[in-house]
From TrEMBL:
Keyword Oxidoreductase part of the UniProt annotation: yes
Domain External alternative NADH-ubiquinone oxidoreductase-like C-terminal: 475-533
The enzyme's E.C. designation: 1.6.5.-
Keywords assigned: FAD, Flavoprotein, Membrane, NAD, Oxidoreductase, Transmembrane, Transmembrane helix
Organism of origin: Streptomyces sp. R11
InterPro entries with a match to the protein in the record: FAD/NAD-bd_sf, FAD/NAD-binding_dom, NDH-2, NDH2-like_C
Domain called FAD/NAD(P)-binding: residue spans: 132-450
Similarity comment: family membership: Belongs to the NADH dehydrogenase family.
GO MF annotation, one: NADH dehydrogenase activity
Record keyword Disulfide bond present: no
Source species taxonomy: Bacteria, Bacillati, Actinomycetota, Actinomycetes, Kitasatosporales
Transmembrane regions: 29-48, 60-80
PANTHER family registered for this protein in UniProt: NADH DEHYDROGENASE, NADH DEHYDROGENASE-LIKE PROTEIN RV1812C
Full protein name: NAD(P)/FAD-dependent oxidoreductase
């Protein structure tokens, strides 16, 4: 109820009681009328903007009557007659009838005000539909955007925010290699999405399609069937999927590294290969089982081959029949050196460290086909193996193709050109940088892209202009196994044990909760003392 409406109701409510008292006491009409209007105005002020109950209205009226008796009867009325006000007990007792009249006046006014507010409720203000912001994808970028918008909702942003993901947890992908190599428990590298959202909503489902003309997203939500989710602003943060380039057999036989399930399957495959090799009488098949090929020599492939090498050699003593045999590890990389993301010096350092342990390199080569028993390179070389891990290529999520043919190049603000209300970030989009290239698809960039797109959306909803995303990167680190690492931080190259300590410290600090940090720290501490766990968590007969 507005202030003006309350004042009006207060004056109207005071008139019946004021008239009744005037009939009984016959005071001067003009001062009494002004007094009654003032009493009603005070009543309206005291009632506030919320509707009161009958009892509350009666109590407020009595309070106003008491205040009226003190201010009018004991103070103003004597002053108007040229007398000095007095508040002694004797004077107060002498004006007891006026006290009864004031209380009666206040009570009648309070009840009348209540009756008026019930009989004539304020007309509800027209409800403006809040804009709906939908974020598709529960990775670093999507969750980062949702949490930033969630924070702004708590500070008054007028909107609805919904995060849609087919996983109800945020996966800390940089530590997936630890899951595959048995240094980190799988559950410790994921954090529940809902726990980080206080105002935004979460919808567990897979977005099947997006209609950018009608601004609707269609979500497969299990038994609920297909749900239509209308939106005003939509953020595509669906990431990338492995790209096998339609190479014969690669999609069927290669192990990707995109999810906890992928990492667990690869771990089971490696440990299962050791189990089968321990029983295999044929030396050729035994060698095939003990050969592990990793396609791709970037960050993911280099870290993976190093950690799998450590895993196998750390647990090999559990398999006495394999004593004297040497497991074989091969990296196949299309470039002329490992780790093109780093400087040539650090790339050579990494290759020297890994090569010194017996890891083989096939540089300037590509996998051309794969079977259950071997892989073939484009040079014609065949490598007998039962295990091919694939980190050699990614492509945007197929959902992106519904928006426009990839690559999806967005504006520096992360708005999709030509499609109002659509934004994209992370691995599924190309975001221009200041140097004329594109921001790399790393976790540190995705996190900041998510926050930046949330700020831009909040700005657009408030009628302001979005700003271009700018981030130069904090540095890069890559684990090389054997408690060594390499990287570049602030333009300075680091390598060896110090870089390994930095690698673990940085990733530990970036985990999404204190609980997960403590759990991963416990995993790493146990790994320093005890051998790695060789228990197969699931049965995977695909390569048996």
């Amino acid at each position: 109820m507005t202030l003006l409406r309350r004042l009006f109701f207060g004056v109207i409510a005071a008139l019946p009681g004021g008239a009744l008292v005037a009939v009984v006491t016959k005071p001067p009409w003009l001062p009494w009328a002004a007094h009654t209007v003032a009493l009603g105005a005070v009543l309206g002020l005291l009632f506030g903007g919320q509707r009161q109950s009958t009892g509350s209205a009666f109590s407020v009226g009595l309070l106003v009557g008491l205040l009226d008796w003190v201010t009018w009867t004991l103070t103003l009325a004597p002053a108007l007659e040229g007398q000095k006000p007095s508040w002694t007990i004797t004077v107060a007792v002498s004006h007891f009838p006026e006290l009864v009249g004031a209380a009666l006046l206040g009570a009648i006014a309070g009840l009348s005000f209540h009756a008026l507010s019930v009989r004539f409720p304020p007309r509800p203000a027209p409800q403006r539909a809040k804009p709906h912001v939908v974020i598709v994808g529960g990775g670093f970028g999507g969750v980062g955007a949702a949490r930033e918008l969630d924070r702004r909702l708590g500070r008054g942003l007028d909107a609805h925010v919904t995060l849609i993901s087919d996983s109800n947890f945020l996966l800390f992908t940089p530590l997936l290699v630890g899951v595959a190599s048995s240094t980190v428990e799988a559950r410790h590298v994921s954090a529940p999405v809902r726990a980080g959202l206080g105002h935004a909503s979460f919808l567990h489902g897979r977005v099947a399609s997006i209609d950018t003309q009608t601004r609707n997203a269609y979500v497969c939500a299990g038994k609920e069937g297909m749900l239509r989710v209308p939106y005003d602003q939509l953020v595509l943060a669906v990431g990338a999927v492995p790209h096998f380039f339609d190479l014969p057999g690669v999609g069927e036989h290669a192990f990707a590294m995109k999810s906890v399930e992928d990492a667990t399957k690869l771990r089971n495959q490696v440990l299962g290969a050791l189990e089968r090799a321990d029983l295999e009488p044929d030396p050729a098949e035994q060698a095939r089982l003990l050969t592990f090929v990793i396609a791709g020599g970037g960050f993911a492939g280099t870290e993976l081959v190093a950690e799998l090498f450590d895993l196998v050699h750390d647990v090999l003593h559990f398999y006495p029949r394999l004593h004297g045999l040497r497991p074989r590890f091969v990296i196949v990389h299309a470039g002329d050196r490992l780790l093109p993301e780093l400087s040539p010096q650090l790339g050579r350092y990494a290759q020297r460290k890994l090569g010194g342990r017996g890891i083989e390199f096939r540089l300037g080569a590509r996998v051309s086909m794969a079977t259950a028993e071997d892989i073939t390179l484009d040079s014609g070389e065949t490598i007998p193996t039962r295990t091919l891990a694939w980190t050699a290529g990614n492509r945007p999520n197929p959902l992106v193709q519904q928006v426009m043919p990839p690559p999806l190049t967005v504006q520096p603000t992360m708005q999709v050109p030509g499609i109002p209300g659509l934004w994209a970030l992370g691995d599924c989009a190309r975001i221009p940088d200041l140097a004329g290239g594109f921001h790399p698809p790393t976790a540190q960039h995705a996190i900041r892209e998510g926050k930046a797109v949330a700020k831009n959306i909040a700005a657009v909803l408030r009628g302001r202009r979005p700003v271009a995303f700018r981030f130069g990167g904090l540095g890069v680190l890559v684990s090389l196994g054997h408690r060594t690492a390499a990287g570049e931080i602030g333009g300075r190259r680091v390598s060896g044990f110090l870089a390994w300590v930095l690698w673990r410290s940085v990733y530990l600090s970036k985990l999404p909760s204190v609980e997960k940090r403590l759990r991963v720290l416990a995993d790493w501490t146990l790994d320093l003392v005890f051998p790695r766990d060789i228990a197969l968590s699931t049965k995977d007969d695909r390569h048996a």
